[in-house]
């Protein structure tokens, strides 16, 4: 293929991919399968890798990320991003309407209503139809330049559609994480033994400020646009502006509506009060704007808010009921969580009998007492929570609440780490829910993968006295298992086979399965690779632990605390005696030569003579090291076909030596 042919093909592929993106996000249609779409993208990446100078600033390949931003530049907004005044009732909306009427001196005006999405406000500037800059709201006057991260959001056009657009304009919208994506992300974190994320809004906000744009791309953020700004937009109303940005290919939520009167606005609000829960995005209200842009200018602004717009906030769904009791749940890590036992009450279409109380601090802040009538809300949270007390209903005789001092399961005195809100039961070796939770974590498919043991089986084994820690799994006999309720010969054999097979699980999975606090799957892999065996890890000092990349003070101290306990030392010794893997596969570190000793490589692309895995093994076999990202410390970028253009660009910028497959083969020839 000649350079000119490549240029034509790059343009064709870019247009085709942009079209499919538009159909998917704006028209909710899929004209090609995911596989076919990926093939087109891979072909474009391949061509741009061969001809990097032909890559356009609006290339769809920027969706995959790869740019690393150490610091985000502060940008002053051309137009201030003002906040809206809030209102919570129909009467307050009617008062707003009267102010609009008085300010305009006429009742000849109309409103435009949109749902208020619970995300992160963003400003996008386009020059000659191409995305030039993406900036967060910040303080309304200035925000952070997050252009590289915004380009990975597939519903944000890198280039607008059509030809009818101003030379320069700005659109504003809300970046959000779809609810389905958020829940899937939390499920994965839970499976990996990591702390779950709080809510979609905070997750979206944190994601936009990540340094590595490839991680942002993997988070599958979305964006609804709802505003057009500029000096040559040629629109008379907000409705015209919405129609215009739709025609340019921007993702606009199809929930908007034009209303002639404030009463129609109120009807719109009532319609969406329940329907909004069917959307795949969190919402917390409605935005109401005077439709005419001339009338907006006439009404003007206060010091903080526009006079022509207002936000109606839905009240969190709430109910009043009696607090009958407080019980406590003990988790796998020993964390003790107080739970309100309520007089059953209907809330958001379901009967609520229990609600979260979070921790002792929250109970004290609200001055909760058993017997109080409490307000229970089910807003954006899945689990209902107690938000306050109706003091007018309190009986004077109700005693002040006292938080428990001992574990409700094993009666061990609770501890509270300085700086943390939760109480913990330290009796990890004898507290029933901790033992059962730890075993459940140990046998999980992401750890030792003993799929023949579930929660019910763990309970049966524990209740029989056969299971006091994970090492006891390897002492189980056929008779013990066969005599459990519901077990027969085949099921008993399968359980024991699963336990036996787990002895071959790699060391890093065993380390993760131990359930050491803050040691998730990724951390376990890094520790295993660095220390290579359990004994070296057990003997490591605080300084040696924090020297491992991505291992901070908190993880290091947790490891020291875990290995300092005699019962944990005994547990590891029993597991080692049972035959579990206490070191990484030594073949990973055996080398045929030291030709590449001390040299680091990044492998990118497709190669003629070797797979990427084979190249990794060859590098390791000759004393070298393979890393995943390009930095100034990297020695070589081993480049093949279809190499990521971002890696090539960064390597050139850092003046990294780029070698071909044949170059590499020459390096390891003796």
Automatic annotation (TrEMBL):
EC number: 6.5.1.2
Cofactor: Mg(2+); Mn(2+)
Pfam families: BRCT, DNA_ligase_aden, DNA_ligase_ZBD, HHH_2, OB_DNA_ligase
Catalytic activity from the UniProt record: NAD(+) + (deoxyribonucleotide)n-3'-hydroxyl + 5'-phospho-(deoxyribonucleotide)m = (deoxyribonucleotide)n+m + AMP + beta-nicotinamide D-nucleotide
Highest taxon in the source lineage: Bacteria
Keyword match NAD: yes
Keyword Nucleotidyltransferase carried by entry: no
Binding site for Zn(2+): 407, 410, 425, 431
Cross-referenced NCBIfam families: dnlj (TIGR00575), PRK07956.1 (NF005932)
Record family assignment: Belongs to the NAD-dependent DNA ligase family. LigA subfamily.
Protein name: DNA ligase
Gene: ligA
